[in-house]
Structure formats: C-alpha cells, structure tokens
Fold:
Amino acid sequence: MRRRLLYLLPKRLLDISVSLAALVILSPVFLIVALLIKMHKGTSHVFYAQVRVGQYNRDFKIYKFQTMVDGADEMLKADQALYEKFVANGYKLPTKEDPRITKIGAFLRKTSLDELPQFWNTLIGNMSIIGPRPVVRRELVEYGSQERIDQLLSVKPGVFGLWQASGRSNIGYPERAEIELSYVQQANLGLDFKIMFQTIIAIFKGDGAF
Structure:
C-alpha cells in the first residue's frame, strides 16, 4: 500500500502540474484551432465529447477537438460495410477512407492536436497524463476475460500511453490489449516518463496517426 501511494501521489501531482501548464501555455493554439474548425463547413461544434470507460468501470466524457462532420456517428451506423470495417480495424478508420472526417480534422488527427482538450480531462481527474488509452464500452470485449477487463480499469486512462508509444493505430487488437495490460502490470514513474518521451517522438514523426 505504501509503495502504491509513493507512486500515485506524485503521479497525480504530475498530472495536475503538466495539464495546467499545457492548458495555459497552449491556449493560443486552442484559440487558433477553434477558429479553423468554426470556419469549416459541415461542423457546428468546436469540441467533441464521447463517453468512454474510465477507472473502476465508471463512464466519463472525453473531450477532443471536433474532426468530423455533424452526425458522424449516425453516418457510421447507417453504412453497414463502413461500420464493419471500423470494428475490424480496431474501432478506427484510416483518415483517407473515412468520409466523416473534415479537411481540418485530418490535419488535427495527423498532428494529434485533436487530443489537446484531454488535458482538461486530466486536470479534473478522470484521466492521467500516462495510462492505457480510454476505450468505448464495446471495445472491452477485446480484452477477453472479466479479470483482464478489471485489470485494465484498475487505473486511470491516459492522454499518452504505451500503445501510442509503440505505434498507435499501426497496432490493432489483440496486440493492443496485451500492450495496454503490460503497462498496468508494471506501471511506475520511470516508465511513465519513458512513455511520455517516446509518445512525443511518435507524434512528431506521425507514426500511426489517424
């Protein structure tokens, strides 16, 4: 218990300090991105909120910059072939093959700028800077047994994670599940800093970003 507290307390302090600094320092970027999104036809919202599964199996709303046209979820569900490809591809679609994504949205995804609002999720405590990437509830089946699902949900999901550092969307299930669970099993501050550094490099290189 003492060892766990010695990890979780500084981790939470790091989450607060990094996310607060990011929100302040990057506020001009937030403003520019918001203006670019509002200038684009087809979308009426700057931010996109989606329910994801968080720590202890609690639902929360994850925030991103809007990268899709209005009614994107309905568009996906209405196209059976597209939806099947979406599921088979690890609940993602390559940007060039996704008719829902706007031009500015493609840029935001390629540069990972669409993820910036998640620093707010981190500040308020339903995400961490480092952790498994948050999933929608239907993805939990990819983790197999209830024991493995409980293990995944024993920690806060992260803005950055080992899966991202390992290649992001280039790596699908079931390998992604193994990578995420391996983080949960060995999480420590040293590993967190290593993942943060590796993910930043992956973002700049554009590895697996879509």
Observations:
- Residues 2-25 form the longest helix (24 residues).
